[in-house]
Amino acid sequence: MNDAAADEEGALDAGERERSPLRRCIVTGERFPPAAMVRFVLDPSGLLTPDIAQELPGRGAWVCARASVVAQAAKGSFSKAFRTQVPVPDGLVASVEVLMAKRLCGVLGLAKRSGATVLGFTKVEAQLRLDHDLPASLWIARDSGPADRQKLLGLARRHPEDVKISGLLSNSEMSLAFGRENVVHAALKRGGLAARAWADAERLSGFRLLVPEEWALES
User: Fold this and answer.
1) What residues have CB less than 8 Å from 89, skipping those under 6 apart?
2) How many whole angstroms separate alpha carbon 175 and alpha carbon 79?
3) Looking at residue 57, what DSSP letter applies?
4) Phi-psi domain of 204 (left: phi exceeds 0; alpha: psi -120 through 50; beta: other)
């Protein structure tokens, strides 16, 4: 297998291929699981296209899911990876961020329809006060008011190993995701959908802060 083929299929240390299908970043050369990367393909017209779901056909170029690395890739790495001149659309980094946020919102919406969410301050607070059946993750709109947010953060931080905290999404994004007006506070019950949502959240955190810096001082 040549280097280009190895890059696309995910070059691995000997004996690791079955257990850990890694991909190599075309910018840094580092290898990561696909969940920590963004895949790009060329559409039939040769247009560079972010493949957020990592399902589109054709040869792909993999980039670490960090805004700075995607920006660096736009300076020539795609042409080198695809072995042809690749025009890079303006606003590529912002476009990738929007698409990843949209994907995350889709998973959250699926969790809502599956009955795997708790919405609203009062219900989320009650869930966080339980001694058992704690939620897998707490979702607070990044533009939320501090009073209620501080109460929920304080409760969640009592269980740092059990309850993950996200401030990735705005009030409007959360409302769109959960299909209700003015969703500011939400919790996801444990299960496969919560795990999927958090994997997407971690990838998006390479483009926006997982938790706003000012929240670190709140409890």
Assistant:
1) 47, 48, 95
2) 39
3) S
4) alpha
CATH classification number, 3-89, choose in 3.40.50.40, 2.60.40.1120, 3.40.50.970, 3.30.1230.10 = 3.30.1230.10
pLDDT in tens, 22-69: 999 999 999 999 999 999 999 999 999 999 999 999 999 999 999 999
Q: Where are the domains of the chain?
A: 3-89, 95-217
DSSP string, 4-47: HHHHHH----TT-TTT---EE-TTT--EE-GGGEEEEEE-TT--
CA separation for the pair 213, 28 (Å, rounded): 27
Which tens digits make up the pLDDT trace of 191-218? 999 999 999 999 999 999 999 998 876 6
- Between strands 137-140 and 164-166, the pairing is parallel
As given in the structure block, the two tokens for residue 146 are: 């501090």
Q: Which of 187, 197, 100 is CA-nearest to residue 140?
A: 187
Q: Are 53 and 103 in contact (CB under 8 A)?
A: yes
Position 189, amino acid: K
Q: Is 137 helix (H, G, I), strand (E, B) or coil?
A: strand
Q: Into which CATH architecture does domain 95-217 fall? A: 2-Layer Sandwich (3.30)
Strand-pairing partners, residue 117, are 188
Q: What are phi and psi of 16, to 5 degrees?
A: -100, -10
> What is the distance between the alpha carbons of residues 193 and 206, in angstroms, rounded to a whole number?
21
